[in-house]
Amino acid sequence: MTETETSVRDDRAGARPAEAGWAGYLSERPLLVLGAVLALLVVVTVAIEPGYLSVRGVRNTLLLAAPVGILAAAQTVLMLTRGIDISVAMVATLAGYVVGSQAGTGLAYSIVVGLLVGALIGAVNGVGVGVFRVHPLIMTLAMSAILLGLLSQWAPTIFRGVTAVPPFLRTVGGGSFAGHLIPYNALVWAAVAVVVILGLRRSGLGRMIYAVGDNPTAARLAGVREWQVLLVVYAISGLLAAVAGVLIAGQVGSVDLRLAEEFLLPSVAAAVIGGTSLFGGVGSYSGTIFGALILGVLNTMLTFLNATQAMKQVVFGVIVLGLAWAYAAAQRRTG
Amino acid sequence: MVIRRSFQVGTGAMVLALVLAGCGGGDDSGDGDGAETFTIAVSNTLVGNQWREQMVCAINAQARVSGVVDDVVLANRDTDASGQISDLEGLISQGVDAIIVNPADRTALDDVIAAADEQGILVISVDQAVTAEAAYNVTNDQVAYAELGARWLFEQLGGSGDVLYMRGFDGHPADADRDEGFQQALADYPDITIANEVFTGWDPSTGAQQALDILSTTQVDGIWTSGIDYTVVEQFEAAGHPYVPIVGADNNGFIQQLIELEGEGLVGAIVTNPPPVGGVATAIATDLLTGAAEHPQDTLLTPEVFNNVDDLPALENLYLPELAQGESATIEIAPWTTYTQQDVLDCKGPGE
Amino acid sequence: MSSETSAPVRRGRAASVRRWVRRRGWTAGVWLLLLALIGWYTTLIPEFGEFEITSIAKNSLPSVYLALAQGVVVISGGVDLGAGGLMVLSNSTAAALMEGQPPEVTVLIALAVVAGAALLNGFVGWVIAVSRIPDIVVTLATLFIFTGVALMVLPSPGGGTSGQLRYAFTGSTTGIGTNFGPSLIAIAVPTLLFAAWLTRTRTGLSIYAIGSDDHAAYLSGVRVVRAKVTAYATGGGFAGLAGVALTAIANSGDPRFDNAVNGTLNSLAAVVLGGILLGGGVGSVVGAAGAGIIFFTLSPILTAMGIDPNTAQVVRGGVIVAVMVVAGLLQLRRWRTQ
Question: Which CATH number does the domain housing residue B229 bear?
Answer without folding.
Answer: 3.40.50.2300
